[in-house]
Amino acid sequence: MLKFLKGVVGSGGGIKDLPYNIGEPYATAWGGWTHCRGTSKDDNSPVSIFSYTGSNAQDARLAAARNGAKRLRIVRHPNVLAFLHSTEAETMDGGVLKPTIYLVTEPVVPLAEKIQELDLQGTQRNEYYAWGLTQIARAVSFLNNDCKLVHGNVCLASVVVTATLDWKLHGLDVLSEFDGANPAAAGPMLQYDWLVGTQFKSLELAKSDWNVIRKSPPWALDSWGLGCLIYELFTTAKLVKTEDLRNTAQIPKTLLPDYQKLLASAPARRLNSSKLLENSEFFHNKLVETIQFMEVLNLKDSVEKDVFFRKLPTLAEQLPRPIVTKKLLPLIASALEFGSAAAPALNPLLKIGSWLPKDEFNVKVLPTVVKLFASTDRAIRVGLLQHIDTFGAGLSTQVVDEQIFPHIATGFADTSAFLRELTLKSMLLLAPKLSQRTITGSLLKHLSKLQVDEEPAIRTNTTILLGNIATHLNDATRKRVLINAFTVRALRDGFAPARVAGIMALMATAEYYDASEIATRILPHLVVLTVDSDGDVRTRAFQATEQFLQSVKDHHSKLYNGDATASAAPAASVGDTTSSGLLGWAVGSLASKKSTDLSSTPAETASMSTSMTAPVSQGVAPPSIATHLSAQPRFHADEPATASPTSTEGWGDAQEQPFADDDDEKDGWGDMDLPPEPAPALARIRAAQQKPVTTQAKPVATSTITKSVTRPSVEKVKESSTKSSDGWGEDDDPWAAIAAPPPSTSARALNPSSAPRPSGIGGVRRPVQQAQHVSIDGVSSSGRGRGRAAPMKLGASRIVRTSE
């Protein structure tokens, strides 16, 4: 016996033939059924399980339950409870085996319990009731008018609510065909009419007058049931007797005329449920119209969709919050995911999603957002990037690294400057979630190109971003990238805010540089900017110089006191409030103006504000980059202006960086030398004329020609990178333009004719004036000018030419 019971019941208290787990029951259910929560054994998805246990195999109520299960299986309608599974088994009850029917459906909750849970009041309650009654009226109209069936038991107990707050009709135990057109029909039309409570029966059904019923319209009985449902909804009380239906004090005035027509004493005069929705003003409200528009969204044109979704964020605030989050939100997400909604639907999706708890947002909204990143619609990509701060924190590292970043990365090279800037700013949230392989192999390559972007604001924000994500780089990458990016690129940019960003980035990342790097690679660049023509640049340069000098002094003190670890340890970052503002600056720049035309040419750059944020805004005439070049310190008035860097390669250079790896070329950080631009001969002569003349006393027996190396001006040192990746080669002294040349130790040949002849470009001689500096061009034999300049002769001397 025990073995038999185990075979019937199965392990874990479940039914052997039922692939679902039965959970806790609800407090109410219709017609003797037990309504329980349940889950699937396969995927643990929620379901509802209805069960009825008969007293014996010949129980008439058990036969009605079988009829309800059979009808539910074959009747399919969006507003009728969805059937999933059914089975019948024998269960032990009080020592007696009794037959039990199990009916599995989609997860639902009894309407009475859901109303108490929502606790809506006033207009919002009426709007939700109107939507629910609309769904039940559609189901009843489908049964009566299309299927010629009579439900026979429409009431509050026969309505259940889904997870999306949709109302579904169930309780089909009494459901029968309407045989009024059959003259030979006799006897009861509803075989199980005795299951219907007396208070819910119409006059003719209470009298069992089947002749009158067959002569009545098919909707007569169920229209009466709709009237009973309306009464129980608005009075919040169970219907006890038929006479209570005359109490209309709580029925809305706009619904009262139709309510009275539904309960007409003559069956032929009762209102058809299909006409109820067409005529009643009660069913025309904002909530009903909004949901109905979403249900037929595929039939709407693009103009109607655009107008609707632009108004929806404001409209959603006026609708019942639970219905908006549980009903409207899934509809919007589905429309976006399957392409029936355009980019304007993204704003209401994220706004409504922000009303959800974090865990619920991750389940209902985040999967759709992740899929939208793969969209080729530029407007959707812009919308996602503009609102990434609302959902970026909830993205997992695996999703960002594998699913989102590959799609976002296409925006780095987009033709729209507005989209490039949004992509750049999104990295502030996404970069911490990327793997080191993605950062070094992809992200830094894109940032290297953006730091020489045509838009000054993008170059500035790229430097800001690098300063903020420095903590997420490994040590080798930091040594290879940071100093080159902040000094070679940022500090030489013709855009003053870009130079300020470079200074601030150096200060914010000071902890990653040792004393040697500070002394040889950072301070020389910063000192030059202390005489910059831009006041903000000078101020920041002085602050940074003081900070780094203090770091070097601290390093000296440690060495002086015998600290053996000081030589290898990075220089300690001196506390400075100015360096801590870099992160706030980058976050503040996220408030970029929205582009009005994403398909147009790259966005124009607005003038930088005093707050130093650098957003790209479209529709504003771009300032000429040349106007910002005045910010560079210039000692020679005739020196040509230099533009911002244009190299599209990486930041690293093995010649310039003692810490660079041998495989810099593999990860995109190659040489950043610029193409050589030899200055015209006249410009070099004028520059040489403005240099100080140094003459030396000639020895008695030996005459010397003091040699010096042609050196760029301070401006050229800052902006040109033709020598090495950081501009500070072994022969490039930043102080050469203002310092006297060192004395020469090499003797000049006694025979003047043996001295090398000065030659011009292309072998053409140029006139030589005495008592002035003469530079000898260092053009290589290939004529491309990639070599270093040849040394020039310094000092006043007589040059003897021979005739050719």
UniProtKB/TrEMBL annotation:
Annotated segments matching region Disordered: 594-623, 638-804
Domain Protein kinase positions: 1-283
GO MF: ATP binding; protein kinase activity
Species of origin: Ceratodon purpureus (Fire moss)
InterPro entries: ARM-like, ARM-type_fold, CIK-Related_Protein, Kinase-like_dom_sf, Prot_kinase_dom
Name of the protein in question: Protein kinase domain-containing protein
Top-rank taxon, per record: Eukaryota
Biased composition, class Polar residues, residue ranges: 597-616, 691-711, 745-756
SUPFAM superfamilies to which the protein is assigned, alphabetical: ARM repeat, Protein kinase-like (PK-like)
